[in-house]
Amino acid sequence: MRYESIPNSLFIKNRENFIAQMKPNTIAVLTSNDVKHNNADDVMSFTQNNDLFYLSGIDQEETILVLYPDAQMEENRAIVFVKETNEQMRIWDGEKLTKKQATIVSGIERIEWAQDFEMTLQYMAFEADGFYLGHNEHLKRVTKDQETQQDRMIKWCKGKYPLHEYYRAAKITRDLRPIKSEEEVVLMQKAADISVNSFIRVLKACKPTMKEYELEAELTYNLVKSGASHHAFQPIVASGKNACALHYNTNDAICNDGEMILLDFGVCYANYNSDTTRCLPVNGKFSDRQKEVYSSVLHCLKEGSKYLKPGVLPSAYEAKMAVLVETQLIELGLLDANKVANQDPEKPLYKKYFMHGTAHHIGLDVHDVGLYSRNIEVGMVFTCEPGIYIPEEGIGCRLENDYLITENGNVNLTVAMPIEIEEIEALMNN
Ligand code: GLY
Ligand code: MN
Ligand code: MN
Question: 106 Cβ partners below 8 Å, 6+ apart?
């Protein structure tokens, strides 16, 4: 792996917490993600299933984790199944995890080869009353023609053991994963630190007439050189009015003199992510109007992020942020105060210039799992990302940091990333 090894105490603790929520005499079976193919025999870079990773630390395809805490025989209480390598694989792909390595990574003593999974599980299933199985329950998950390893496991297990009870592993992992432990925060801080240096590199490289993808290349160079696995998501490098398309990422336009660029990017280090947004003037000097809009958004970020603290419901935080942005839109002359006072609350006028949520959990997923009906708690990490988009002026501005919730409020993990207008201009002109 590119990243430094993670202490297996993290995964041992995660399993203890998971097991504490399992119903009596049940078996949890978690699978890795599939390796996905492009055309012909080329494959996309592998992304581990985050629940499996959270509970085992194993970052290899074709892995299965089995937890049966109430098993009669101690050896059946936790097993990792990994793919057995052979001469052919060694020649083409190199080494895979040995059993000993898998034990060191996961802290689980019993490691078996993947081909022995079904037979091993059979004996455990005789004894158990039910199964916990993994599933990606995300709203936007595409199901059509995209059967996942999890779908296949559910189908296989229910077909083979139809009279057992079935439960959702995701119910438990969604409860646990939002609260980050110290080891996880260290990894997220590392991702954030790589982001900071990547952004500074962009500030130093940016010049009028460059293509947006040249700036993307600066990010990519720095994050790969720093040991990150990959971008946390396809980075957004959007100059001028491109910044008003929220998920723009073709990054193929020319950065023109006088425009502002919106850069929304993240770093994935050891499977943990950062997610940050900054804006910069192509020519190194913000115009007066860009400064006005930028300062408004910065004010919302500074004030709004104060509401990210224990005991606050995410929707209450979002409502406060909406008022902050609305006030700034009036000051910028974009909304009329009287019309705002008499607006239909179901159709607030600010939506014309500000149309997205401004805080999401972040961790193993960029938009990490976690219920938004749950109050903010110590140990959660949220982004804060207000924005104002004015296509008719060719200006889109969003600023985004990552905040660890603490007893007294929060700590900005991305505090070292330049954000003040003067800092950005100074770095671009030196
Ligand atoms: N780049 C995705 C987000 O900011 O949520
Ligand atoms: Mn972002
Ligand atoms: Mn975000």
Answer: 8, 11, 56, 57, 58, 80
Would you say residue 143 has pLDDT above 80? no
Q: What is the pLDDT of residues 41-76, one digit of tens each?
A: 888 888 999 999 999 999 999 999 999 999 999 999
Position 2 in a domain: no
CATH number, domain of 53, equals 3.40.350.10
Return the best residue to mutate from 231, 233, 401 for the ligand 1 pocket (most ligand atoms within 8 A of CB): 233
Residues 65 and 44 in one domain: yes
* Percent helix, strand and coil across the chain, each to the nearest 5: 40, 20, 40
- What's the CATH code of the domain at 222? 3.90.230.10
What is the pTM assigned to this prediction?
Answer: 0.96
Nearest CA to ligand 1 atom 1: 264
User: Which residue of 237, 297, 366, 384 sits with most ligand 1 atoms within 8 Å of its CB, as the best mutation to test the pocket?
Assistant: 366
- Residues 102-131: tens digit of each pLDDT: 999 999 999 999 999 999 999 999 999 999
Tell me, yes or no, whether 1 lies in a domain: no
Q: Is 275 in the pocket of ligand 1 (CB under 6 A)?
A: yes
Same domain, 169 and 219: no
114, 82 in Cβ contact below 8 A?
A: yes
| Structural domain ending residue among the three candidates 176, 204, 226 | 176
Same-domain check for residues 169 and 191: no
Backbone angles phi, psi at 167, to 5 degrees: -135, 160
The domain of 402 spans 182-429
Residue at 9: amino acid letter: S
Domain match, 229 and 142 both: no
Element (H, E) at 272: strand 272-273
Cα 386 to ligand 1 centre (Å): 11
Q: Within this chain, do residues 104 and 47 fall inside the same structural domain, yes or no?
A: yes
- On whether both 148 and 190 belong to a single domain, the answer is no
**Residue 92, Cβ density class (10 Å: 0-12 exposed, 13-18 middle, ≥19 buried):** exposed
Spatial separation of the C-alpha atoms in residues 273 and 366, rounded to whole Å: 6
Cα distance between residue 292 and residue 288, in whole Å: 6
Any ligand 1 atom below 6 A from CB of 34 = no
Using the atom order of ligand 1, give the atom closest to the CA of residue 277. Answer: 4
**Residue with CA at minimum distance from ligand 1 atom 5:** 367
